[in-house]
Amino acid sequence: MPLFENGQIMENGWQTAQEGVALPEGDVLVPLSRLAEGLGRNGAGRLGVVLEPADRVESLREALPRLDLVCVTFGSFRDGRAFSQARALREHLHYTGALRAAGHILPDQYEFLLRCGVSQVEIPQGSDPAFWQAAHTRFTVAYQPSVLDEKPEGTGLRRWLLS
Amino acid sequence: MPKLLQSTLPVGRYAYDEVDRAFLAQRVEQFRDQVARRLSGALSEDEFKPLRLMNGLYLQLHAYMLRVAIPYGTVSAVQMRTLAHIARRYDRGYGHFTTRQNIQFNWIKLEDTPEILDVLADAQMHAIQTSGNCIRNVTSDQFAGAAQDEVLDPRVHAEILRQWSTLHPEFTFLPRKFKIAISGSAQDRVAARFHDVGLIARQSEQGRPVFEVIVGGGLGRTPIVGVSLRDDLPEEDLIAYLEAVLRVYNEYGRRDNMYKARIKILVQALGREAFLEKVNAEFAAMDRSRYRLPAEVVEAIRARFGAPAFETLPDGAESLAAQCRADREFAAWVSTNTHPHKQSGYCSLTVSCKPAGGIPGDATADQMDLLADLADQYSFGELRITHMQNVVLGHVRQDQLYALWQVLQANGLGTANVGLLTDIIACPGLDYCSLANARSIPIAQKLSARFADNTLQQEIGQLRLNISGCINACGHHHAGNIGILGVDKRGEEAFQITLGGSTGDDASVGQIIGSAMSEDETVDAIARIIDTYLVRRNPGERFIETCRRLGAAPFKDAAYATV
């Protein structure tokens, strides 16, 4: 499924590890349980990790400098744990690489994802990319600090969203 | 005539500017788009539901219900007229004040809602986060900025929390709803111990506020009195600390069972110490400077609040006493419906929305307009909705009370029952709500009619009677000195009685005294419980005190005496 990043639709060049199958060549996303295997992989290709909602972000602390992608997942768009995971990756672990959101997500949540530190989303099957495009520039102001450290507007709590 | 408003800032609430207006306009457009996507099928009902709930739109038994946010319960006369207009134009001519100091309209059409949100936005109002699994409307003291016993006006910090929590990127899809109340008085009038987070502010020696943070209280299916996490939270860490509490809740709160998903269940499961440890660990690890709330930000937001331009008046107690001696009905009203003010010559008054035999919390569009006019004339254009579902005029001159009371009397708003038995809290019940087991309104009306006699009510004294139509407890039955809980008894509506609940500093959870009875049997049983109290009480003892001294047994015997 295509990715959406910085207002652009992009191709997803990453493969996802299949259960019971050896890790492929190239850029691959592994579950947390196969992180060691991924790190020990020989040959070219970048490594990413998929976090399930119940996974602890802290468990990535050591491996993080060697990862090129972290993907947080939504089993349901109503389960907001991935927002906290994304924010913790940026704020607690100071992760600066690519941070993807995948699973059941809505364009209506795009602003929240970005402000929690997500940099790219995997557009779910059947979701119209036009709604994601619209969501990208929809809002200009927010009322609280976020990990993006947006520019404060005036002296109150407000922040400008679009730089 | 009292002086008109001295400034353009609305008294007691935050004034929007162009940036706030633009924010609301963008959000209304988003909702209009969501409604269109729902109607076109691009959004499934399952996907649309949380989005409409984020904008206060419920689907009830017979129609959509729209719940409009009234931050910290404070509303201007202009806004009240807007609410009256919505009641007339889009509903059936009335609205219902809720226990979260909001107002809801029960007969709304889905396709009208974007337009209603436009009308609200024009009046600096919205319905954002009045529902859904997010941080709900922040409630506060109905006598904020007025009460003699107040340390500081909590509404500035309530506004800060409103802003901080509005479409918070991390906390908009929590395990369950999250309710915050804030008090600026040691006398807790906000039920801080029955909230997900209750905050009690006081002044530090350095002149800035500090807060006690109470967490994990609540009613609903599992009523629990909250636990105090700390009582020394500095103002500058208010947002950071709440971030930490919410992060722990978002990460660890249960998501497998919606009835066990509130933070109170998490706090109980972990225990206070383990929960506190997690919060403290997060608080220590976070980038504190990012979330710091500097005094200048607080002051910038405070500067957007209007303040009442009080006149210098002598204390009016003596002439008020003379008026009371001359008119006993007025005297009864003054004794129950007024509250002492910090400014000499003024008082706060509560307009009861619970007339004899009426529906608790309902107000007609005409009454809303009248209240708006009275607020303009007598109380600096400011009104407050109380969590008891009444309306407060916060700053009324004592020497104008009598004239004001006569207008209220003439319009069915002069009932002298605030804090008495017929000041009933009731949820909408099975008349509206798809969750309810029983109708709350008819039994409330019967009790209200039964105990309407003011002399009798005054004799009974302070008593909280709360009614919920199901165990979700929107009528806060557990928190009532007497609670009534609607249940389904073999397909019939029936009611259980609870005794001993209380909010405030002595918070306690009411306990069920026995099996459910029919509506009429319940009304009779409550009459016998009251009789027992009147016979058994010690001089000066309130109902709740007699209850605690004697235990439930004599009341239970009385309740089931003839059943």
Distance between the termini of chain B: 58 Å
Going by helix content, strand content and strand pairing, the class of chain B is: alpha+beta
| Unreliable residue runs of chain B | 1-6
Helical percentage of chain A: 10-25%
Question: Any idea what the CATH architecture of chain A is?
Answer: Alpha-Beta Barrel
Write the layout of secondary structure elements.
The complex is a heterodimer of chains A (163) and B (563).
Chain A: E1 3-5, E2 8-10, E3 15-16, E4 28-31, H1 35-39, E5 47-51, E6 69-74, H2 81-91, E7 98-103, H3 110-115, E8 120-122, H4 129-136, E9 141-142, E10 159-160
Parallel strand pairs in A: 3-4, 4-5, 5-6, 6-7, 7-8
Antiparallel strand pairs in A: 1-2, 1-8, 9-10
Chain B: H1 18-40, H2 45-54, E1 57-59, E2 64-68, E3 74-76, H3 77-90, E4 94-97, E5 103-108, H4 113-122, E6 139-140, H5 155-165, E7 180-183, E8 197-203, E9 209-215, E10 227-234, H6 238-252, H7 263-270, H8 272-285, H9 288-291, H10 295-302, H11 317-326, H12 328-337, E11 338-340, E12 346-351, E13 362-364, H13 365-378, E14 382-385, E15 391-397, H14 401-410, E16 425-426, H15 441-450, H16 454-460, E17 465-468, E18 482-489, E19 492-499, E20 511-512, H17 519-536, H18 543-550, H19 553-559
Parallel strand pairs in B: 6-7, 7-8, 16-17, 17-18
Antiparallel strand pairs in B: 1-2, 2-5, 3-14, 4-5, 4-13, 8-9, 9-10, 11-12, 12-15, 14-15, 18-19, 19-20
Helix pairs in contact in B: 1-2, 1-4, 3-13, 6-8, 7-8, 11-12, 17-19
Organism (chain A): Acetobacter suratthaniensis
Pfam families (chain A): DUF934
Protein name (chain A): DUF934 domain-containing protein
